[in-house]
Structures are given as C-alpha cells and as structure tokens.
Design a protein that fits this description.
By secondary structure, the chain is an all-alpha fold. It has one domain. The protein has helices at 2-10, 40-81, 86-105, 122-142, 150-170; strands at 19-20, 26-27. Strands 1-2 form a two-stranded antiparallel sheet. Strand 1 and strand 2 form a beta hairpin. Helix 2 (40-81) packs antiparallel against helix 4 (122-142). The longest helix has 42 residues, at 40-81. The protein is elongated and about 95 Å long. The N and C termini lie far apart (98 Å).
C-alpha cells in the first residue's frame, strides 16, 4: 500500500484531495475543468474589466452632476449680473470639457453640426444651457454602464455647440 501511495505522490496526484477506495488503493479525481467563465485568469481579467467599466460610469455620473451644477451657477450669475463675468467664462470652459468627456465616455465623437434654432439673445442661450445640463444629468443617470446612449451623446453635442454659440454672442 505504501508503494502505491508513493507512486501517486510522484505522479502529481498529491495536489488533489486523496481518497482511498474500500480495497485500500488511492482514488484519483479528474482535474477540474474550467467553468462557463473560463480559466481563473480569464475570470480575474473579466472582473477587473467590470470594475473598470463601473468606475468609468461612476466618473461619468459625477461629471454630469458637476455639469448640471455649473449650468445652474452660470444661470444664477447671469441673472444676478445681467451679463457673463470672467468666472462665468471659465465655468463655460469647464462645462465644455465636461460635456466632451461625457460624450466620449458614452461612445460619441466630434460632431460639428450647427446648433438648430440657436437663441438670439444671451439670456435665452444661458437659460437653455442650464436646462440642457440638467437634462444631460438625467440622461446619464438613466444609462447603465453597458449602454451607449444616443441621447447622452446628442445632449453633449448640443451643449458644446450652445457654449460655442454663447461665446460668439458674448464677443461681437
């Protein structure tokens, strides 16, 4: 019996749980086959990929939240001062960067379409920008990390064009 045990150890079976049959001989088991996820390495890679996707989506939600806040701040400042201040122009720049990052994160790319029916006065443009940034936030919150949202991309593009339009109104 000791010879078969030593033979089993030298054959590499020692890595598997060892059971003994009724006749005293060791019983070997078939090595585990990878499950539906594949190998443990593939499973670890997939889990890391999922964590990365979740982190990216969380960052997109945070950007949309910040964009909505900036849109509201610009509108409040405009109503108070009846014009855009230097700080508002900096906020517009930040808002444009956020909109681009959100659009890229949603799977969109540069789209140099003209803004349909642009507001003629700056007050209307700033009001529309605040509404649009709020709509963008709602759209991002509704979208999961697994979905490419045409609405998010469209609203981001519209925000970028509206910001360009506001700058052109501001600088005659």
């Amino acid at each position: 019996m000791t010879v078969s045990f030593v033979g089993a150890l030298s054959a590499g079976v020692f890595a598997q749980p060892l059971t003994v049959k009724q006749d005293g001989t060791p019983e070997t088991r078939e090595p585990r086959k990878p499950g539906p996820m594949g190998s443990p390495e593939a499973e670890m890679l997939r889990r890391a990929e999922i964590r990365h996707e979740e982190e990216t989506h969380r960052e997109m939600v945070e950007r949309a939240d910040e964009a909505a806040q900036i849109g509201d701040e610009i509108l409040a400042s405009f109503k108070k001062n009846n014009s855009l201040t230097r700080d508002d122009l900096k906020r517009l720049e930040r808002l444009e960067k956020l909109a681009r990052k959100i659009r890229n994160g949603a799977g969109g790319s540069d789209d140099d379409r003209e803004l349909p029916d642009p507001p003629g006065v700056i007050e209307g443009a700033v009001t529309r920008l605040a509404e649009l940034s709020g709509d963008l936030k709602k759209s991002v919150l509704k979208t999961s990390r697994l979905v490419i949202s045409a609405a998010v991309i469209e609203r981001s593009n519209e925000m970028i064009e509206l910001i360009r339009h506001i700058r052109s109104i501001k600088k005659p």
